[in-house]
Write a structure and sequence with these properties.
With about 110 residues, the protein is mainly β. The chain contains one helix and nine strands. Helix content is about 5%, strand content about 35%. The chain has a three-stranded antiparallel sheet. It has a two-stranded antiparallel sheet with strand order 4-5.
Length: about 110
């Protein structure tokens, strides 16, 4: 059994299922969508597909939605990186996009 992501016409993941390769190849699950295998262990296509992720054919990767405009895509991992490192002091923080900083949650 393998995991497959259902991709719509905008390359957005709309569903993730577990199925046999033969089931996907048969067209039974719907011919109007593209099904692309995803790896639960991130062995290929960079990240396990999630609903709302984008499939980038050029990178052959599933990419989550950009959380904030200031965050940049790491080309190696295809994950979004914050412009400021998360504080390493065991407190909880939330990203403040306006001030481009981590604000401690009280």
């Amino acid at each position: 059994m393998s995991h497959f992501a259902k991709i719509d016409s905008n390359n957005i993941v709309t569903e993730v299922i577990v199925a046999e390769q033969d089931f996907i190849n048969s067209g039974v699950v719907g011919d109007s969508f593209l099904w692309i295998q995803t790896s639960y262990n991130n062995n290929f296509r960079k990240n396990f597909a999630g609903i709302g992720y984008t499939y980038d054919k050029t990178r052959d990767a599933f990419i989550p939605a950009q959380p904030y405009p200031s965050w940049t895509l790491d080309e190696d991992t295809c994950l979004w990186e914050c412009p400021v490192a998360y504080p390493d002091d065991r407190n909880e923080y939330t990203w403040n996009e306006t001030d481009q900083q981590w604000d401690e949650i009280n």
